[in-house]
Structures are given as C-alpha cells and as structure tokens.
Write a structure and sequence with these properties.
Blueprint lengths: L1 E3 H4 L8 H5 L10 H12 L10 E4 L2 E3 L14 E3 L2 E4 L1 H14 L1 H4 L3 E7 L1 H12 L18 H7 L8 E3 L3 E4 L4 E3 L1 H10 L7 H5 L3 H8 L5 H6 L6 H19 L12 H4 L1 H12 L15 H31 L6 H4 L2 H8 L1
Parallel strand pairs: 2-6
Antiparallel strand pairs: 1-6, 2-5, 3-4, 7-8, 8-9
Helix pairs in contact: 3-4, 8-12, 12-14, 12-15, 14-15, 15-17
C-alpha cells in the first residue's frame, strides 16, 4: 500500500527505536545514500517513495470494515511491529518531521509492505541476505542513460557488432573488441576539449569512474560528444593505441631523467601528438571523409608521437628544474598541474 510519510515518521523516534523495532542495523548517519534520501525528501518530497518499499513485519494486522469507512481511507491497526527493511528511511522521516514539520511530510508517500505469519519469516530471511541478491550499480551502468551513448548503441557496427556501455565494443568484419575504458581513453585523447583534463582523469580506474559518473558535465561531453559514429570510435581507439605503442618502442636511453615523463605521463604525450597530426573535428565523419585516417594513424602518428615525446621531455626538464622537487619524477609527472605547465 501507499502511506503518507507523516503517518510513519514517528516510528523511528527515540534512542531505543532500533531495539523496539527489531531493525537489522541501526541508523548509519551521514552516508552518501542517507544524505541523498534526506535531500530528496527536503527538495522533492513527492518523489521520496518512488524507489524501494518500506518492509515491516507484524504479529497482527486488523483491517477495518471498508464499507464503514464512508469513502475515507481506512486506518490499519498493527500490533507487534518489526522493521524488516527500511530503518534508514524511517529515521530520515523522523528527523524530517522534527526539522521540516508535518505539513512538509504530507507531500511524501511511502510504499509499504507488512508481512505476517510465516511470510514474515520469509521476508526477514530474504531481506537479511538482500545484499547478496542485488547487483551493485556502478557509474558505468549509468552511461546507458546518456543520449549520446544511446546514439552509438543504435549505430551500424557491422557483421553483428555492437556497442554496449557495460560490455564494450565489437566492431567490423574481424569482430575487434574494445573495452569501455579503452573506448573512453581513446575518445578522451581525441576530444575537442582545449585541455587534457578528461584524459588525465581517465588514466586511473578511479578517475574513469568519476568521468562516467559526470554524465552531462562539460568534461564528460567533451569525450562523449553529440552524434558520435562507430567509425569515429574505432579511429579514436586505434590512434590512442598507436601513440601508446610508439612510446613503448622508444629506446630506454630516452626514458632517463626528465625522460621519465614517457613512462609516468604517456597519455600527455599521446594527447599532444594526436593534436599535432589528426583532424579531430572530423573524427566522427564516416562517408566522404577528406582524410586518410588509416594512413595517418598507422604510418605517420608513431613518428609524430616520438618527436612530441622529445619536445615535451625538454619542456618537462625545465618545469622540473623550476619546481625544485629533487630527483623524484613519478609523483610529479602524474600531476595535472605539471601537465599544464609542460604544455605551456
């Protein structure tokens, strides 16, 4: 049933509410989920009960004569109440009642389940193990809500190929497969954004999760731009891979001293090299492209990347010396501020 939030708000009042309701765990305080629930209740109370139900157990539930209610919503009499699932929500409602008042809570409804008898034991058992029955949601899952990503999913990937933000890409007659991190880093490397911030963020697993979680932001839209094409995605991944391979093939003598930039900040070099050679604005042009993308990526980009590495290593040597941080390069070369200084 749907119940007015104000009718439930007092259930979790008082310091003994956890014991009194037999809840599975006490109030967790200012967790990200609880803060978000409290924010929704404060800003959009009418949507508070749209996701998940409050699950209670009871010794007895007395249902009044509906005919005698004369058109008014009947009140249930519940005895021996137990909170099987949803104590965090109950506590948030209790706090909101004190802070926002009953009139505000009347705008919110909560979906309520009450289980009795043997069904109560079954419900308790399932909810106690609920964390094992739910697939955790990640930022990557949220990509499917992005219209630019959905545009790619509907594209022609040839020969039963596909684009799936969870599984990645299978494209072309040879069924070449790219993971979603590979796709993201390739698109970030060839983005139209004026700076390398997106690619710098995507260099780590934690950073790429943050980028995926920022759907709609300026940084995100610099990577997953409007009307991307399957061919453009393949080009981006191939260009990024080609530049990275060129850096790996450089002789070890170039990777000493300031040359550690090649090992510790390879994506900075790749980003700059791609801008020196490739027509980024035409990345997603498929039919009638004026450029030989295959030739540029396979034949020209490795040499451009090597020359770019030499240029940026010289610049980094000056930056490193000016910063006066001693002989340690690793932590320094990975900093976004250092990338910006090297780019000038």
């Amino acid at each position: 049933m749907s119940v007015s939030a104000v009718e439930l708000a007092s259930l979790a009042a008082g310091p003994d509410a956890v014991r009194r309701l037999g809840a599975r765990r006490g109030f967790l305080g200012e967790t990200p989920a609880n803060r978000e629930l409290a924010r929704i209740l404060r800003d959009r109370p009418e949507t508070f009960g749209s996701v998940h139900s409050l699950v209670l157990g009871a010794d007895e539930v007395h249902v009044p004569d509906l005919a005698a209610s004369r058109g008014f919503a009947p009140s249930l009499q519940v005895f021996g109440l137990e909170c099987i699932d949803g104590f965090q929500r109950l506590r948030i409602l209790s706090d909101a009642l004190a802070g926002l008042g009953a009139e505000h809570l009347e705008k919110a409804t909560v979906r309520l389940e009450i289980h009795c008898g043997r069904y109560r034991d079954v419900a308790r058992s399932l909810h106690d193990a609920g964390h094992r029955l739910v697939n955790a949601t990640t930022a990557q899952d949220g990509l499917i809500r992005c219209p630019n990503v959905r545009w790619l999913m509907a594209g022609d990937w040839e020969k039963e190929g596909f684009f799936d933000p969870r599984r990645g890409v299978s494209a072309g007659p040879h069924r070449r497969c790219f993971s979603m991190p590979e796709v993201t880093r390739g698109l970030a490397c060839l983005s139209l954004a004026p700076g390398p911030e997106a690619l710098h963020l995507a260099t780590t697993d934690e950073g790429i999760e943050r980028l995926w979680g920022a759907v709609g932001s300026e940084l995100y839209l610099g990577v997953f731009r409007d009307r991307m094409s399957p061919l453009g995605v393949v080009r981006a991944v191939e260009a990024y891979d080609s530049a990275r391979a060129a850096l790996r093939n450089l002789p070890g003598r170039l990777k000493k001293g300031a040359g550690h930039l090649i090992d510790y900040a390879p994506d900075l070099i790749c980003w700059k090299a791609c801008r020196r050679l490739l027509p980024l604005e035409d990345l997603h042009v498929e039919a009638g492209s004026r450029h030989d993308w295959g030739g540029m990526i396979e034949d020209q980009l490795p040499a451009v990347t090597a020359r770019t590495a030499e240029d940026l290593v010289r610049r980094y040597e000056a930056v490193h010396r000016a910063r006066g941080d001693g002989p340690h390069y690793k932590g320094e070369a990975e900093l976004l501020d250092v990338w910006r200084e090297v780019l000038g």
